[in-house]
């Protein structure tokens, strides 16, 4: 969620970029739905953010 916000992308806009509804993005951000690896990479490219850098940042947040 933070990467999306940092990029200035709304849930609606990201959903459109992915061919999904805003509720799809909301469920992911609320932890109600998980992304598989391919979806994660596609979402990162749509923001755009480097998937590897985002994973490294997440690992450092622990």
TrEMBL record:
Residues 2-54 form the HTH cro/C1-type domain. InterPro entries: Cro/C1-type_HTH, Lambda_DNA-bd_dom_sf. SUPFAM superfamilies: lambda repressor-like DNA-binding domains. GO terms for molecular function: DNA binding. This is HTH cro/C1-type domain-containing protein. The lineage of its organism: Bacteria, Pseudomonadati, Pseudomonadota, Alphaproteobacteria, Hyphomicrobiales.
């Amino acid at each position: 969620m933070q990467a999306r916000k940092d990029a200035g992308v709304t849930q609606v806009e990201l959903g459109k970029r992915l061919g999904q509804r805003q509720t799809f993005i909301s469920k992911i951000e609320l932890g109600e739905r998980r992304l598989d690896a391919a979806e994660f990479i596609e979402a990162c490219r749509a923001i755009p953010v480097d998937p590897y850098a985002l994973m490294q940042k997440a690992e450092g947040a622990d």
